[in-house]
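Q: Please design a sequence for this.
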């Protein structure tokens, strides 16, 4: 994995712009209905004493590269940590989302945060993560 160096704000702005363009060009309407929640939703802070990690993943260029990223914030909206990685791998967008979720969970574990909310926009992945049944 290659970390992309920039400020957290530049990372968020760049990721949002690139992801919006990618989704508009590449995600079929049927996949949008099953995977992606409302793309226009506004960030809401976690309850006091909790940390929220938002994550996202996307397939880049010709489908042979993946970009993932995430940001951890406290209830006041202050950025506590973030990650951004890009690597060569041919996967679909749901796998890219799962890789981003795994990295978000690793971020929480590495910082030893115990009260954490993990939030992403792939509804099918979120449903699977919230389900204790084996799949």
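A: Design:
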């Amino acid at each position: 994995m290659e970390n992309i160096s920039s400020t957290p704000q530049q990372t968020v702005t760049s990721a949002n712009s690139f992801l919006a363009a990618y989704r508009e060009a590449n995600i079929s309407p049927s996949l949008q209905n099953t995977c992606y929640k409302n793309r226009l939703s506004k960030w809401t802070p976690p309850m006091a004493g909790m940390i929220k990690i938002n994550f996202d993943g996307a397939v880049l260029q010709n489908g042979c590269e993946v970009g993932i990223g995430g940001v951890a914030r406290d209830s006041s909206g202050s950025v506590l940590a973030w990650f951004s990685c890009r690597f060569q791998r041919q996967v679909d967008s749901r796998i890219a989302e799962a890789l981003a979720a795994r990295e978000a969970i690793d971020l929480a574990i590495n910082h030893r945060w115990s009260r954490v909310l993990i939030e992403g926009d792939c509804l099918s992945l979120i449903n699977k993560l919230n389900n204790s049944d084996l799949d």
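Q: Thanks. Anything notable?
A: The radius of gyration is 14 Å. The helical segments are 8-26, 29-35, 93-110, 123-130.
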